[in-house]
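Exercise 7. Given the encoded structure of a 339-residue chain, write a plausible sequence.
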């Protein structure tokens, strides 16, 4: 399916670029692990293209073009693009899922901020839950309830990332904390950027994110039993490794400004062992009724786009709108430079 040289490139990209997923992927069966590594390599490339490049608008527009080429069957002549194109063809990957990721990255390029926790979850659905839904596709899982729980896990992971990176984001003049939380605490965004401190109020916000993430981690577990048996340890592994970052933040008093929460090799090994044990237990335990909980409103569109029988959709009006806005901004920047 994926050319061996392209697959090796993707393995190396994840080995160095996403330590948590690389560790968890070791527990996936090979027929899922390889396409999953290729998927994460493409997503990692997309994220880095926007996060690490100076001209974020141009980066998003290039990603749009690369996705168009992938779905046209003419991927860019690069290992990650060729590997992702092979996945799209083999697994009939719904276009709405990578488009959702692209929309989240476009929001980053537009420097969007979020007024409420629901807005933060809207963002998390795009940059994380969309990847969880794509992982389900790679496992040949299109059940709506299992997809909803995978999306819970994606939102939980992204909330953990946001909680961990409050200080680093502030140094880059980025804010993902809900603005209404800041307003309640009497904190002005520009003042926070100028002098980010781990005050009691800020640590309280980090705690709220960690607590909400923990609630969703617990809810997501009900969906793991709906996955193929061989895939369960790897997904449990990802769940425990990311939740471990939240536990580390708790031990640090929710101060994600003075230091960065990190986990070590031995902790990861312990969580992977726990994942193996829990996966074995899930084979004999009855299904939890939590499996059938309604999807978060913010991820419903992902479930609808992926579930069995979902119609193949074209690029959404919302995505077209934000890309058009970025295109206009790019043209204005060029005119300013040449004028």
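Solution.
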């Amino acid at each position: 399916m994926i050319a061996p040289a392209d697959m090796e490139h993707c393995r190396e990209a994840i080995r160095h670029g996403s330590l948590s997923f690389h560790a968890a992927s070791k527990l996936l069966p090979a027929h899922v692990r390889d396409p999953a590594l290729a998927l994460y390599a493409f997503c990692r490339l997309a994220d880095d293209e926007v996060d690490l490049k100076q001209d974020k608008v141009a980066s998003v527009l290039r990603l749009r073009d690369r996705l168009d080429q992938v779905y046209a069957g003419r991927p860019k002549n690069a290992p990650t693009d060729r590997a992702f194109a092979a996945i799209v063809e083999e697994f009939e990957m719904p276009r709405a899922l990578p488009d959702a990721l692209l929309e989240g990255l476009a929001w980053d390029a537009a420097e969007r901020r979020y007024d409420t926790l629901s807005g933060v979850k809207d963002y998390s659905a795009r940059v994380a839950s969309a990847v969880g839904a794509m992982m389900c596709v790679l496992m040949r899982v299109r059940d709506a309830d299992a997809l909803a729980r995978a999306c819970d896990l994606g939102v939980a992971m992204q909330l953990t990332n946001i909680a961990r990176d409050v200080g680093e984001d502030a140094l880059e003049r980025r804010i993902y904390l809900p603005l209404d939380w800041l307003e309640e605490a009497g904190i002005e965004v520009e003042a926070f950027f100028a002098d980010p401190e781990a005050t009691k109020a800020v640590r309280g916000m980090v705690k709220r994110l960690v607590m909400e993430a923990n609630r969703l981690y617990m809810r997501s577990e009900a969906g793991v039993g709906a996955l193929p048996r061989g895939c369960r340890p790897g997904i449990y592994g990802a769940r425990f490794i990311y939740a471990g970052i939240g536990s580390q933040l708790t031990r640090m008093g929710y101060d994600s400004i003075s230091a960065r929460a990190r986990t070590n090799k031995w902790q990861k090994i312990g969580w992977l062992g726990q994942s193996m044990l829990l996966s074995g237990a899930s084979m004999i335990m009855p299904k939890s009724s939590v499996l059938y909980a309604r999807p978060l409103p913010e991820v419903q569109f992902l479930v609808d786009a992926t579930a069995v029988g979902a119609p193949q959709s074209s690029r959404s009006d919302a995505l077209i709108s934000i890309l058009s806005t970025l295109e206009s901004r790019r043209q204005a920047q060029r005119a300013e430079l040449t004028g």
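Remark. The chain has 16 helices and no strands. Students should compare their own answers with the one above.
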